[in-house]
Each structure stands twice: as C-alpha cells, then as structure tokens.
Design goal:
The strands form three sheets. This protein has a two-stranded antiparallel ribbon. Strands 2-3 form a two-stranded antiparallel sheet. The protein has a two-stranded antiparallel ribbon with strand order 4-5. The protein contains five helices and six strands; from the N terminus they run βααββββααβα. It has one domain. With 158 residues, it is of the alpha+beta class. 34% of the residues lie in helices and 10% in strands. The chain binds iron/sulfur cluster (SF4) (2 copies).
Length: 158
C-alpha cells in the first residue's frame, strides 16, 4: 500500500510591479480636488459627512449631493468643476472626507502599472516625490484592497 502524495501547494501570487514600495506624501496642495473628475460617495460616506456638518440626510443631500450615472456624487462648482468642499485649496471636511479621497492614490487605475503611477504623478506632486516616505508593497496592497471593497459597496448603493 502506498501513501498518497499530497497535492503541491498553490504557487504564490506573482509580486506586484510595486514590490519595492512606492513613495507618496500628501502636501495638501488641493490639486486633486480641482477640475474634471467626480467624487463618488457611498451611503457610509454620506452619513459621515452629514454628521460632521450637523445636517440631517435630506438637507445634506439637497445642499451637497447630485445624481450622476445613477450614483451619488458630491456637487461640483459649475464654473470650474472643483469639488464643492474645496475652500482656499483646502478640504473643508477633511476629517470626514469620502473614502475615494482618503484612499488616493491607492486606486486600481493608478496602480495598474508603472506608467499609470507615473501619469498620476503628473497631477499630484506627492506621488513618487523623491523625498516622500516609502510605503511598503504590503501597505499599498492593503489600501488597494480597501478601495476595491469600498467601490463595490458604493456601486451596490451601500
Ligand atoms: S494632489 Fe496629491 S499632494 Fe495635492 S492634495 Fe491631492 S493627494 Fe495631496
Ligand atoms: S471632499 Fe475634500 S478631499 Fe475630497 S475632493 Fe472634496 S475637497 Fe478634496
């Protein structure tokens, strides 16, 4: 009688292109809050922002939200496209800002490959800045996974 050979363990996933980590710091310049691009919000974001501003949900929605492509987004300034919460190039709701703002630049699009990361660096002075802290690949992946889960919740209307 022979002893069954156990199956080989699955191969470990390939190392991400950012295996050596990525440099990033937020200088608070406000550039990512300006111009084109929507800030999509989940119900969790909406509840947090409304509470931070001391508003009930209908009032918050009336003053700060709009529907776009079947989802909730923060209102923008019509003349510039800047986020409605940007004041003097600073976020007026920083502590309660939406998940999408907190997780930048750890987004699927930004982390697709080195070229996408480089492109993000053209719009954000903190992405890849030489003196910025090195964020480990593990922390980058953790933040990316959080962002993916958050996007799925927001797309599902949660
Ligand atoms: S553009 Fe970059 S550095 Fe400037 S506020 Fe946004 S994340 Fe921070
Ligand atoms: S909520 Fe704050 S951090 Fe997010 S885009 Fe608006 S001003 Fe910028």
């Amino acid at each position: 009688m022979t002893t069954p050979v156990p199956p080989a363990p699955p191969a470990p996933p390939p190392a991400p292109w950012y295996a050596a980590g990525l440099r990033f710091t937020c200088t608070g310049c406000g550039a990512c809050c300006t111009g084109a691009g929507r800030v999509w919000v989940s119900l969790e974001d909406i509840a947090r922002l409304a509470a931070a501003l001391g508003l009930d949900l209908p009032t918050f929605a009336e003053e700060h939200l709009e529907r776009a492509a079947g989802r909730w987004a923060l209102k923008e300034r019509a003349e510039t496209g800047d986020c409605g919460f940007l004041r003097d190039r600073r976020c007026a709701v920083y502590e309660a800002r939406p998940r999408q703002c907190r997780t930048f630049p750890w987004w699927p699009t930004t982390l697709q490959d080195a070229a996408a990361w480089g492109e993000a660096g053209r719009g954000c002075e903190g992405v890849g800045a030489p003196g910025a802290p090195l964020v480990s690949a593990e922390d980058v992946t953790r933040a990316l996974d959080e962002e993916r889960r958050g996007r799925a919740r927001a797309a599902a209307g949660r």
